[in-house]
Amino acid sequence: MATGSQETKQLELWLNKHREGDEAARDALINFSCDRVRRMTQRYLANDPRVHRWESTDDVLQVALLKLHKALEKIKPVDLLDYMGLAARQIRWTLTDLARHYYGKEGIGQNHATDAAPGQDGLPARVAAAADSADGPEDLAMRAEFHELVEGLPEDQREIIDLTVYHGLEQKEVAEMLGISASTVKRRKRDALITLSER
């Protein structure tokens, strides 16, 4: 999404109308976010078979968009970047809530008995096999913690994570949005991931 593109101009127009109280503009913003949130949700669930056995993409999408709708009833983002940050927070909170709900101490997934043939750690074989293919950082607990820790990042690093991870933008697109170089985007993302890893 390049700054000055038709898409950006349209989003800015909707944001202006939303600040004036236009409910149709709020709905248009949510519709715009729908595809991005869907892609993020699909990636998350594809890498987490344990949650995917309980929730579908559309279920998670609906919760995240409902959170965004409620947030926009109270908050009037001042610009496109502010809106993207608001939307990213709703995605983070939704994914964090899911992880806690199913795999927290009292979570149904943590304590659910299944008739499927057991795999490692008592998980159904198909779930355990899929989990084996994930890298360490893709482990559910790591991801749940990741979403929570992003909130504590310095603003410049959090913006980069919001735009690249939660909105799926390329580094070049982010650089154009923020008015910085692609190398700066790359450095800030690297620094953010190092910070998250250390924490």
How would you sum up this structure in a few lines?
This protein is mainly alpha-helical. 72% of the residues lie in helices and 0% in strands. Helix 5 (80-103) runs antiparallel to helix 8 and helix 5 (80-103) packs across helix 9.
What can you tell me about this protein's structure?
The protein is mostly helical and 199 residues long. The chain is built from eleven helices and no strands. It has helices spanning 6-19, 23-46, 49-52, 57-74, 80-103, 108-111, 125-132, 140-150, 155-166, 171-178, 182-198. Helix 5 packs across helix 9. The longest helix has 24 residues, at 23-46. The two termini are 32 Å apart. The model is unreliable at 113-142 (pLDDT under 50).
Assembly state here? single chain
- Tell me the series of helices and strands, N- to C-terminal: HHHHHHHHHHH
Tally of helical segments: 11
Describe the biggest sheet? none
pLDDT average, as an integer?
77
Strand content: under 5%
Portion in helices: over 70%
Shape: globular
Distance between the termini: 32 Å
The SS-based structural class is mainly alpha
How many individual β-strands? Answer: 0
Low-confidence stretches: 113-142
C-alpha-based Rg, rounded:
18 Å
Task: Set out the fold topology.
Layout: H1 6-19, H2 23-46, H3 49-52, H4 57-74, H5 80-103, H6 108-111, H7 125-132, H8 140-150, H9 155-166, H10 171-178, H11 182-198
